[in-house]
Write a structure and sequence with these properties.
Length: about 450
């Protein structure tokens, strides 16, 4: 903030309260993509600002329930929700990321640009998620000050701390070969995916903007401030991160007031030892396949209590009645449930991973696609988790992995240590300080 800002008493001085600013937060995707932006919005409100979340109509009710202003921006994810079969392609390990970009975001890029340009009318700052592809275009075309944000390490494509691409999980064996090896590989990867974002270059040309080398990576980074909204425990700052990167830690939000733990869940948790929690987040749950049936069998083999968060897809309902030691629910707030679990089995989305890390519980990660394989590798590297490929998730393998997690004190102790580190961070507050600094120099 500017050193000479007016204080509450109307006098200029150091450390003054910044004036209220209108700040548009643009994001797209699952709850793991939305919740950090809700966390930022609530913190900005607490600091006296006026946040507006610009995203799909699909998320309107969740946002407005928090007393946060909403502005609809296409694409409308309601269209995807109506086609559950499409999630199989969206979550495919090899082609899922390409499908998301080329079949969801690129066809509506011009509409997204028009909507977001209207959303920032009269605003003081734009904050955009890396997949809000219209964000950089709107910032350049309008001149509005702009802050970008990334949620997981794979978005930074570091040569010093290389990520594990979903298409080639065996790549983790080559991570230690160093920047001389990974630099050329990352250059090749950037060229390979450049065709996915060709519509961005075409729209830039129509708008009279200069082309960018890489709309998916560097081209999506603000030149003045980039928020790195994940904890140092899964990714330390690297020499090849952009100099404007500000690592804040995770920005947590869970809608506990509207979707808190039910009386049934509270009673279940109080009736016995901590259960294993099985969940697939808010995207992979739409393509669960046999995950829940195999999870139930694994829990039975271990003679452990279990909770299954199965979502709204009727295909995920467990076929046989559950014993009293098990409970299936559509959803429960992770921030309340995870700390009361013995272990957490999940898909590796960054939002679910962050909540499991904060809870301080060991985890078994079964990645579907996108950043999930890389997140799985990173929590395994931390010593708090094990991982199984989706096609290797059998009853026997799941039970064996969980037995190691639950019976060996090393994972439990380490998970508790990491949980304390994550809980000591305040990602939303740190991010809002960076946002206010960006406003002060704009």
């Amino acid at each position: 903030m500017h050193p000479k800002e007016r204080t509450k008493d109307g006098e200029e001085g150091l450390g003054a309260v910044p004036p209220a600013r209108r700040i548009v937060l643009a994001t797209f995707g699952s709850l793991g993509d939305l919740h950090p932006f809700i966390a930022l919005a609530k913190e900005l409100q607490a600091r006296g600002h006026i946040p507006i979340i610009a995203t799909s109509e699909f998320h309107r009710e969740r946002i407005e329930r928090q007393g946060i202003a909403f502005f609809p921006v296409r694409p409308d994810l309601l269209d995807i929700e109506a086609k559950p079969e499409f999630f199989r392609d969206l979550m495919d390990r090899k082609k899922g990321s390409e499908v998301v970009i080329r079949q969801v975001f690129m066809p509506s890029l011009r509409a997204s640009y028009d909507d977001l340009r209207e959303a920032v009318r009269g605003a003081d700052l734009l904050v955009s998620h890396v997949v809000a592809f219209a964000g950089p275009l709107v910032a350049e075309a309008t001149g509005i000050p702009w802050v970008s944000a990334v949620l997981s390490p794979i978005s930074l494509l570091s040569n010093h701390d290389p990520s594990v691409p979903p298409q080639v999980p065996w790549f983790r064996h080559f991570r230690r070969l160093g920047p001389r090896f990974h630099g050329p590989l990352h250059s090749f990867a950037r060229r390979a995916v450049r065709k996915w974002t060709e519509p961005v270059q075409q729209l830039r040309s129509e708008l009279g903007l200069r082309p960018v080398a890489d709309p998916l990576f560097e081209g999506g980074n603000s030149p003045t401030c980039m928020l790195v909204l994940f904890s140092r425990v899964i990714g330390e700052p690297q020499p090849d991160w952009p100099p404007q990167a500000v690592q804040t830690g995770f920005a947590f939000f869970d809608d506990v007031h509207a979707t808190g733990m039910t009386a049934e869940l509270k009673q279940f948790l109080s009736a016995g030892p901590p259960p294993i929690v099985f969940t697939l987040g808010s995207s992979a749950v739409m393509d669960a396949g046999t995950f829940y049936e195999r999870s139930r069998a694994a829990a039975e083999q271990l003679d452990r209590r279990a909770i299954f968060l199965i979502g709204i897809d009727p295909r995920n309902r467990l076929r046989e009645p559950l014993p009293k030691s098990m409970l299936a629910l559509e959803y429960a707030p992770h921030s309340e449930l995870f700390p009361r679990a013995s272990a957490i089995v999940h898909q590796g989305g960054v939002g679910t991973t962050a909540q499991a890390l904060r809870a301080g519980r060991p985890m078994l990660v079964v990645p579907w696609g996108h950043d999930q394989l890389d997140n799985a590798y990173r929590v395994c590297r931390l010593g708090v988790a094990r991982t199984l490929a989706r096609d290797k998730y059998t009853v026997r393998r799941a039970a064996t992995a969980l037995r190691h997690l639950l019976d060996e004190p090393t994972h439990i102790t380490r998970a508790s240590e990491v949980g304390r580190l994550v809980r000591a961070e305040n990602g939303a507050a740190s991010a809002c300080l960076a946002i206010e600094r960006a406003l002060a120099v704009s």
